[in-house]
Amino acid sequence: MTDVQALDQPGKRYPYEETSIIDEAFSSTKLITEMKNSLFEMQDWFQGRINESVGAADVLKSVRKIEAPFDSVAERLVKWTDAIVELNRIVEADLEKCFALVKDPKLFTKVIHPISILSDFMVNCFQNPGIVAYQNFNSVLQKYSPLKVTQDFVEYLKEKKTNPVILSMDAGEFHSIETWNEWMTIIERTLAYLMFIEAFARGYLNAKNQQSEMMSEISSLSKLMEEWKKDYKLPLDDRIFQNELYSFIRKFLRKNTNLNNAQKADGIAAQLSTYSTSDAFYVIVMDETNGMEDSSYHCGSHERLVEYCRDGNVVLVYRSHTANRTRPEDFKNIEKDVEACRNGKLFCNGTLENAIQEHILDKKLLSATGFVALAKKTLKPEIRSANCQEYKWGPGWWIQANMKDQKTDSSFPCNLIAAFD
Fold this sequence. Notes:
Blueprint: H1 15-34, H2 43-50, H3 52-61, H4 72-102, H5 105-127, H6 131-143, H7 146-157, H8 164-171, H9 177-205, H10 211-232, H11 238-255, H12 261-272, E1 280-287, E2 295-299, E3 305-310, E4 313-320, H13 328-339, E5 346-348, H14 355-361, E6 371-376, E7 382-386, E8 396-405, E9 410-419
Parallel strand pairs: 5-8
Antiparallel strand pairs: 1-4, 1-7, 2-6, 3-4, 6-9, 8-9
Helix pairs in contact: 1-3, 1-4, 3-9, 4-5, 4-9, 5-6, 5-7, 5-9, 7-9, 7-10, 8-9, 9-10, 11-12
């Protein structure tokens, strides 16, 4: 059990305060393990969360032993220890992957070995708490400071020939966003783990605060990686496409209420052209409508679609991952399929809501169905494309066709747009 101080001792924490502090540190440890957020993109947030380990390490410093029967503090320390051991295991596996790819002994001597030693002696402070563990960890910290290891790792990563992200990307025939993200997660988790060790040392050993210097190194690497990323013209991150583009559309429409639909579509397409990406885009701007009575769409993956329905407009922006590497004959096929729908092929029953599924997809009228949209001419739809390198009509084909309303036995003009995945 832990060496619990008397509650009436001045300057001492109450047990419930200690448990809360350790719970926060456990949460921050799991955060690094899972790495669902980007250290490079959320540096201040990561700093705050990792610093939660400082107070918990200070609690550990007062512990003489951790053994059954556990009190509430010891129980949480055991849980936190297990989380750190798991994090250490994952970081070691990550670094083994780096070494297998880079095959440079300096990576082992300057980064992998120091991190392993720091991890082992940090975990020993939990497993064998006391003066010996304290002194051993302090001795190791003097030899392998987290700041120095971070500096060596960042210096290593700033060379393309020893950067596993770049090596892995250049080894593939296609530049995959999945490959980029996988290796970036490995790098960011390793750097976050070094930040964690530094924070633990501050709480446990009263070590000098070196976090700002570490963050400076991380920031410089982040900027360089962002520049290198542009060279590969990768598909947009979902966060940028969904959140940032939606925000741009909202601000753009509210600032430019005097523009017509064509001018609005031009403005949004111009914004899309500024993105360094292999994605190709369709932009549809039309008058605002209620539901899917006068317009509808089908999208194979909603992560590839931004929909904005307010401020007098409906805006749809679809991104195709495959169009820019699609064969010319496939573009000819989708053009042929869409043109065949110009007369006598499109039907609805008073509304466009189910027209795509029932009369286009179910009847297999189109060879490319990553995105399909219908919009009545009365909505004044304007269609633009962006970043489709070889085809001015965008990542698919579109026409104005005649739609037959079976409910009223009448026809009306309707835009049909189809795009590749």
